[in-house]
Automatic annotation (TrEMBL):
Location in or out of the cell: Cell membrane
GO cellular component: plasma membrane
The keyword rRNA processing is assigned to this record: no
InterPro entries cross-referenced by the UniProt entry: T3SS_IM_R
Protein name: Flagellar biosynthetic protein FliR
UniProt keywords, alphabetically: Cell membrane, Cell projection, Cilium, Flagellum, Membrane, Transmembrane, Transmembrane helix
Chief place where the protein resides: membrane
Topology class, membrane: Multi-pass membrane protein
Gene Ontology biological-process annotations: protein targeting
Organism: Cryobacterium levicorallinum
PANTHER family named among the record's database cross-references: FLAGELLAR BIOSYNTHETIC PROTEIN FLIR (PTHR30065), SURFACE PRESENTATION OF ANTIGENS PROTEIN SPAR (PTHR30065:SF1)
Stretches that traverse the bilayer: 6-27, 68-92, 125-148, 168-194, 206-233
Amino acid sequence: MEFVLNYAWIEAVMLSGVRMVAFIVIAPPFSYNAIPLRIKGMLAVAFALAMSPRVADGYVSQNTAGFMGALVLEIVVGALLGFLVYLVFAAVQSAGGLIDMFSGFQMAQGFDPQSMVNGAQFTRLFQMTALALMFASGAYQLIIGGLARSFTAIPLGGGIDFADPAQALIAAVTQMFLASVQIAGPLLVVLFLADAGLGLLTRVAPALNAFALGFPLKILITLTLAATVFVALPQIVSSLTGEALDALMGVQ
């Protein structure tokens, strides 16, 4: 019995698997360290096999030098696409960081080795909530669909115009800062007004030492009004998913 190996199919699956691995390592929610590396590798292999009919169609086997060049290019493409998705969803984490900074929780900053996030309570809470909502709402399936469509726009081993990724990165960074301010904006306005009110009270009655009440008052306001932000998080994650898909399409 003889086995005939289709080297073009094997190369295509390997290259698509490399792009998938580079994407999964960086892009949320798959980049979360609580997911074992073995599971991430199995996901990448499964996605590559699922994409094999599309990526192997028309692929021509290359020599060693050409294959190594295509391998490096797929790593760059996968990492770039994953970083664009990461930038979009970093808006939720940045919004939590703004709330921590304005409310005084920033002094309790700590490092979370699972999510690789260095922040205080609301930074980590917002980030974990966004990840949970992505899995619960099926938003991760849309992200996988966007990655699958990238193989049509950027074929395996094909060239990539770095002008489009640069524009997509600039737009994603701008959108991240804008979205973070929009998410945390109402609570930040209330905290700013609380600071202004304490300042005016100190000017009127200097002996009262109103700023001694500042920290407990701002913590109370934050804990009371943070629920309004959590109510809007499902719609925010849904909107950010659409923006992540637009960023992926912008590169393509």
